[in-house]
Every structure is written in structure tokens, then in C-alpha cells.
Amino acid sequence: MIGVCYLDPSPVEDTFRLLKIPWEWYDPAHTYDVVIARKGGVDAAGAFLVDLSEKDYFAEIARILNEGLPHCHEPVVDILIDELRQILKEHTLLVEIPPVPWGHPYIVALTHDVDITSARERRWVSVGYAVYQCLRKGMVKDAAQILGAKCGVGKDPWNCFEEWMQLEEELGVRSTWFFLPEEGKAGESAPAIRAGYYDLNPGLIKTLTDGGWEVGVHGLDNWRDAGAAREELLRVSGLTGAEAGTRVHWLLFNKDTWKILDEAGYAYDSTIGYNDDVGFRAGTMQPYRPRGCRRLLEVPLITQDGGLFGGKTWNSSDDGGRGTCLRLSEEEAIRRCEEVLAYAKKYGGVVTLLWHQVSMAAPKRWGGFYRMLVERAVEDGAWVVPAREAAHWFTARSDVVLQTKRVPGGIRIQMSGIGPDLPRPEMMIRIHTDAVNIGKIKGDYIEGAGYIDLRFSSQEILVNVNESTSD
């Protein structure tokens, strides 16, 4: 057993929602294999002491989760958690619920922000600049189609919903669509260019939801105003008849945003990421419950099309003003995305992708790269889903209470805090020990390097363990 002594409970709870292992608050009447505390703060009584006066894992993890990091290219919270995990498993038989479902190496959440639905709705200055970009790239036919659509002639090439649905149907996946809740509104104190010029289309939204896609709120003022948060949620959920998550337009955010969204009733947020980079603003790929939230989960945004390939962006990661995106070549973008996927395979969690609705069309033509990323994830065996499904799975995992008890010949693993219907895909139990130390196992399992994974098929599992290992 692991005992923890720490004055502020919040950072400890933040950490152990991500590192799902059995632990308890330190009780001097109990015997522990490991005590996590500051040296001199408790009597470890023969247990191994993880001395927080040398490195305070809890404070550092909580700070990053709740404050974020600029231009962070490695999942530092996941790395800190793994460092703590490696220490613990050297001194106790560590049992864990990893941040991936049974049978999958990682999760991918597919999302699209709907800033634009047609060329005709846009101002001439925007259309003219797009035509100029097309001509620079030799896309003469595309330039003519965009001009024609603006004038009401021909098919509008910036309405790409059918193409996206066909692509995802071919790949056997579904995604989340974040729609702006109000036409012609830029948001309080925002420049006019932030506004979208389409109204919510009930027929389109029904087609999406009937087909298995998710529809969420691309927030305008929900990040800063409680009344606006409720109104914007109602505009969208009133059409879908379902709960909704949000991603704020331009990724605007302040210290009160999570509390506002939580109290307004949003199921999750997926705003914490970069407009001008690819990486780990929250330090983790795991969806997590922000400080002070009762229900809301943050699903960190990891990779977006504009960050990889775009030129200029609003709300840069540095100062919130205009910023420069990475402007990568396709080869460079592949390398950056492979780095992200390598981290996902190592640490688990969710790689949240954002490709804008209009980015399939000229002059951007970024849909092919999206297809390649999704095909790669499917080939890897990843669970590829809309953001809501990833949030639901991690909510269930966060709510599980994992306990272990030594019994003659092994350990009894018990899970509570979960309803009678286990989440799908199922979670798994990881026992950090070599397979040679485990006796007969009932049910499905996989042997790894230094661990055994068991399918989480019931709320109590008895595992035979060699006596020397269970001590």
C-alpha cells in the first residue's frame, strides 16, 4: 500500500486521477510499502520514502495542468507521472489502470472547427485573398470556382461537409464538429474578423448526428461570461437533443473559463492547445478534470492544421496577439506528428486532432494529410473517436476507485465507483511485474515487458502472485 501525507489535497487528487493506482492518506496506524511525503513530516516506519522536499511531483503536475505551458513539445506531466511510477514499482507491487482502453495503444479524438461554411458568406477581402493565394500556387481553376461561388454561380468549394463525411465513412471513423452558435457575432471586444457569417443549419446538424457524428459549441463568449455560456450551449444542444462539449473560437481562455463552462453544463472543453504550434500546452495527453470543476473534463488539443501549415494566426501562444505558425513542409509535418504518436504509444492518452471544415478546399488542401494521419492511427490499432467518446471514457476511468488487498497466494483487485455497465471499450488492469511472477490467470491478458495487462471484465479480480513478489 502507498500512503500519502500532503497539506493540500487538490494537487494529490489531480495527480492520482491521471496515475490510477491504489493509495490512501497516510495513517500512522497502517503499514505501508511506500510513503510519499516530505522528509521529517511523517514516520515512514520502514517504508520507502518518496521525499517531496527533493522533488514535489504533486505541486509541479498540478501547476502545469492548471496553468499550462508555452510551446511545450514533450508531455512533461506524463513524463513526471512515469518517473513517479518507476520509483513506486521498485518498492511495491504496483497495480494501475493505464490511460488507454483494452486492445488499443492510444486514442485519437477527431475534431473540426466550423469557422466558414461557404465562400458566398465571406467578405470580399477574405475571398480576394484566397483567390490571390490560389493564383500564386497555380490553382487557376480553384480561383475561378471560389469567385463563382462568391457570386452565386456553381458549387461552393468551401462547403466541404459531404467530402469530410465521405472521407471518414471510408476510414470507418467519426468526428466532432464545433459550430459557431451565432451568425455575425465576433464576441465581446474581439475584432470583426473573428465573426462567422453562417447560421446554424438544423438539417445539416441532424444529418451529422443521425450519421454518428458529434456536434459541439465553437464558443464565442462562453469562455468569459456565464450567461453567454448557457445561451451558446442551449443554441446547439437544443438542436441536437444531447449534451455538448466546446472548443472556444481562437482558443480564447482565462483563469475563470473552466469554472464558467462547468457551471453552464458543458460536458467537456477542448480549448487548451496552440494556434501556432503542435504540442502539449497542458503537459499531458490525458483528459483531466481542472481544479474546482465538478463535471467538466479538459480534452487537450494536441495537433491542428493551422499550427502545422498555417501562416499567421490570432491569439498566439506567446502574447495572445498575432503570431506566426510553423509553416512546415509535409515531410516536416510528418516528423512532428510521428513524435506526437510516439509519445502516445509510450504514455497513452488522447491525440486530439483539429482540422478546420474549410481546410480540405483550396487554397489550403490539407485534407490529404488528415487522411494520412487517421489511416496511420487506424493501422496502429488506436481507438479513433469523436471527442465526446474519449471524454466519457476518461470520466469513467477518473471515477474508478482501485484497491488491492493481499490474500493467501496473491492479491485481490477491486474496482468501485463505476456503474454496472462497464465502459466500452473496456479498461484494463496493469500489474507491474514480470510474467514469471504471476500464476494462473482467469480471463484475457497480455504479457508485456515487465508487466501483465488484464481485461477489466469484472469489478473484482483475484490474481495468484509469487509470495516474494507480493511482499
Give the structure's gist in a few sentences:
With 471 residues, this protein is α/β, with parallel strands linked by helices. It contains 14 helices and 22 strands. Helices cover 33% and strands 18% of the residues.
Low-pLDDT segments? none
Terminal CA distance = 10 Å
Mean pLDDT: 95
Here the CATH topology of the largest domain equals TIM Barrel
What Rg do the Cα atoms give? 24 Å
Helix content: 25-40%
Q: Beta fraction of the residues?
A: 15-25%
What is the overall shape?
A: elongated
Major sheet characteristics: 7 strands, parallel
Helix/strand-derived class?
alpha/beta
CATH top level of the largest domain is Alpha Beta
Q: Judging by the overall fold, what is the CATH architecture of the largest domain? A: Alpha-Beta Barrel
Number of helices: 14
Structural domains: how many: 4
In CATH terms, the superfamily of the largest domain is Glycoside hydrolase/deacetylase
Tally the beta strands. 22
What does this 3D model show about the protein?
This is Polysaccharide deacetylase. With 471 residues, this protein is of the alpha/beta class. It folds into four domains: 1-97, no CATH class; 107-116 and 159-393, TIM Barrel, CATH 3.20.20; 118-156; 409-471, no CATH class. Helix content is 33%, strand content 18%. It has 14 helices and 22 strands. It has helices at residues 9-18, 57-67, 76-89, 124-136, 140-150, 161-171, 202-210, 226-240, 257-264, 305-309, 330-347, 367-380, 387-399, 467-470, and strands at residues 2-4, 24-25, 34-37, 48-51, 95-96, 107-114, 176-179, 214-219, 246-248, 268-269, 297-298, 303-304, 312-313, 323-324, 350-354, 383-386, 401-407, 410-416, 428-431, 445-448, 451-455, 460-464. The strands form six sheets. Strands 6, 7, 8, 9, 12, 15 and 16 form a seven-stranded parallel beta sheet that branches. It has a four-stranded parallel beta sheet with strand order 2-1-3-4, with no helix packed on it.
